[in-house]
Design goal:
The chain has 281 residues and is mainly β. β5 and β6 form a beta hairpin.
Length: 281
């Protein structure tokens, strides 16, 4: 769902519309993941992978795309679904979804799963990659996958955080593991996110450190930031099998330090309290 924000420059007030629903009635035990593209010519695309709708009218599980403009979200388009591909509903359960445009201009979308039900074949150690509308499934068999992120250094690499092995690099064209970046499952329960500095960051299993994959060298650097002992900064996580899987935010905006100016009005006499200080941020 989303809201349309309207700003009135005369009153300097912003108002939000009622929530507008894009998809609803997904089973509570299953997951939806989405990704939003960068803006081009006033438009962005919203890609989302969803399972079936749980109430009538029934909607097939699938990967869909919507167009985002200043007026809202529209133009739903099915990329693939369970009726026009070899994928089934369980394959569209999506916990973390990423997208990229490759050097040939093709859209590549990858996602991992959140719902685990081995009796029905719902696994959490596989990756679905849809390249130019063609899906492939890669079973890494390295435990639950915590997060994925495309490399900006190597055209064919997707980084994967796996519970049993830690962070690995795979060739998303073939599914072959090309490198183990960490060992013993360290950094194996975390989202992998590209920061404004261009590097890919990850959270240590204890939630105390941030490590990163250097996108100039492809080396893993650990740690590059220690979270202060007075409280965890990385407080967003999901619990699977009694273990925390950390979530990092999607944010490609460059950090800009806050600036402020202060206007002072002196007190009338020393010791009085009728002065003013106005801070402009």
């Amino acid at each position: 769902m989303y809201n349309v924000i309207t700003y009135n420059p005369e009153t300097e007030e912003a108002t939000a519309s009622e929530a507008i629903v894009i998809r609803d009635d997904i089973y509570t035990s299953q997951y939806i993941a989405f990704s939003i593209t960068d803006e081009q010519n006033g438009e962005r695309y919203l890609y989302a992978s969803t399972t079936r709708r749980s109430s009538a009218p029934s909607i097939d599980a699938g990967l869909r795309r919507w167009t985002i403009t200043a007026t809202g979200v529209s133009d739903e388009m099915i990329i693939i679904d369970e009726t026009n591909s070899l994928l089934s509903e369980k394959d569209f359960d999506a916990y973390n979804l990423e997208h990229k445009i490759d050097n040939n201009g093709n859209t590549v979308i990858a996602w991992i799963h959140g719902h685990k039900n081995p009796y029905l074949g719902w696994g959490v150690d596989t990756i679905v990659v849809v390249n130019n509308g063609i899906p492939k499934i890669f079973d890494l068999d390295l435990g639950r996958i915590g997060g994925i992120e495309f490399s900006t250094f190597d055209e064919n690499i997707l980084y994967v955080s796996c519970k049993n092995s830690g962070i690995v690099a795979i060739n998303y064209q073939t599914g072959d593991i090309t490198e183990y970046l960490t060992t013993n499952g360290e950094y194996g329960r975390t989202f992998l996110q590209t920061a404004p500095d261009g590097h890919i960051y990850a959270v240590s299993n204890d939630g105390v450190y941030l490590g990163r994959i250097n996108m100039q060298t492809e080396n893993f650097e650990d740690p590059v930031f220690t979270i202060p002992t007075f409280g965890y900064i990385v407080s967003t996580y999901r619990v699977f099998d009694n273990e925390k899987y950390f979530i990092l935010p999607e944010n490609s905006r460059q950090y800009v330090s806050m600036s402020a100016t202060v206007d002072l009005t002196d007190v009338t006499c020393p010791g009085w309290t009728d002065g003013d200080a106005t801070i402009y941020v």
